[in-house]
């Protein structure tokens, strides 16, 4: 596993050659673990602030509806920061995966440009969400326990962005598990497995 990670990190700009499934998936696992760990580091202080606000409101005798409104307002305040950091982490992981995915595509005889199209799908998904950031934050500030329809309406507007993001992940999964070409192919010799 460590050999796969080291190999991919030293070949971040190498779009030539082939990567075996095992090499590719160990590297993907590494990127996913890192992405989730960074996400937790980002989310913990924000969630701590939200929980502290809820406890203070409870100690002051706030009603359930008032506490819900305060929590949603605090979440809306953190939303822009959270989405910005999440987008940076996600796009960084996508860039780190680009060359490895191209080599994995080569291993199964597919052109590497599919990796660029996949990254562009993910980028488009993030751009759609980012273009609606003000609307998302505004909606979160208006949501209450009695009025969840506002949140559901906002979610329905974001379906296209979600589908593009999931399409990118699905393409990586499908082509990532695609069987390797045995022996040499037009992209090079059979890859070394780590």
Automatic annotation (TrEMBL):
Mind naming one GO cellular-component term on file for this protein?
plasma membrane
Q: Transmembrane segments in this chain: where? A: 24-43, 82-101, 158-178
- Any matching Pfam family: DUF805
Source organism, top-level taxon: Bacteria
Q: Which UniProt keywords apply?
A: Membrane, Transmembrane, Transmembrane helix
Is Magnesium set as a keyword in this record? no
The protein here is known as DUF805 domain-containing protein
Q: What species does this protein belong to?
A: Novosphingobium pentaromativorans
């Amino acid at each position: 596993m460590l050999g796969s990670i080291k190999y991919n990190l030293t070949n971040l700009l190498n779009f030539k050659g082939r990567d075996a499934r095992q090499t590719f998936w160990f590297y993907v696992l590494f990127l996913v673990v890192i992405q989730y760990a960074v996400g937790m580091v980002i989310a913990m202080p924000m969630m701590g602030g939200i929980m502290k606000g809820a406890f203070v409101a409870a100690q002051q005798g706030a009603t359930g509806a008032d506490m819900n409104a305060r929590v949603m307002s605090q979440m809306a305040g953190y939303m822009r920061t959270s989405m910005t950091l999440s987008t940076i982490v996600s796009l960084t992981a996508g860039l780190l995966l680009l060359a490895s995915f191209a080599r994995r595509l080569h291993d199964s005889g597919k052109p590497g440009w599919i990796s660029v199209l996949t990254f562009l799908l993910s980028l488009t998904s993030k751009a759609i969400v980012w273009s609606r950031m003000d609307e998302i934050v505004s909606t979160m500030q208006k949501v209450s326990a009695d009025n969840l329809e506002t949140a559901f309406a906002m979610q329905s507007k974001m379906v296209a962005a979600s589908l593009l993001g999931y399409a990118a992940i699905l393409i990586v999964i499908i082509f990532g598990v695609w069987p390797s070409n045995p022996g040499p192919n037009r992209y090079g010799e059979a890859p070394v497995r780590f």
